[in-house]
Amino acid sequence: MGTRDPRIDAYIAKSADFAQPILTHLRQVVHGACPDVEETMKWSMPHFTYRKRMLCGMASFKQHCTLGFWNGGRIVEGDAPAEKAMGQFGRITSLADLPADDVLAGYVRKAMELNDAGVRRTAKRGAPRAELAVPDYMAAALERSEQARATFEGFSPSQRREYVEWITEAKGDATRERRLATALEWMAEGKPRNWKYMKS
Q1: Is 150 contained in some domain?
Q2: Radius of gyration of the chain measured on its C-alpha atoms
Q3: Whole domain around residue 174: which residue ranges?
C-alpha cells in the first residue's frame, strides 16, 4: 500500500492558486497508476518513489509547474521540451497543458517497470574539458627546476590546471612573472596551488 506525506499536502497548500489543482491532479494520477507509490520531499520538492527508488517528482514555481520522471529519457519520447523547464513536459500552467490521464498513467507504469528491472538513471555528462595547454614560458621554467617539474608532473589534471590558469590569467607581465616564480617555489616544495586552504 502506498503512503502519503503530509509535507506534500503543505507544499500544495502553499503553492500559487493556479498550481494547486495541477499538483493535486498529478498526485492523484501517480497514486492511481502506482498503488504502492511512496511520497517524500527531496530538494524541497514533492517526489514519488517506488520500491525505494525514485519514480518522478513535481514542483510549482511562481508562474508554472513541472513534472519530471527520474528516467525521463526512457519514458517520455522527445524528453526535451521546446520551452525550457525542469522535467519532460515544459512549463505546465493549467491542466490543459498535461497529457491525457491514461497517457500520464502509462508513463508512471513505464517508470515502475524500469524500477522493477533495476534500470538506473544515466547522468548527462557535460562537454569534456579541453586538453591542458602549458604555455611555453612555463614549460621552459619547469625544465630548469627538476623538483618543481617532478611535482607538476605528479599532480592530478585539476591541480596542474589550477597553476596554469593562475599564471596565464595574470593581467600584466610583471604579475605573471611574479606568479610563475611563486609557483615554481611552491611546486619545488611539493605544494599544490591552493595548499594554504588544505587541512593539515
Answers
A1: yes
A2: 26
A3: 136-192
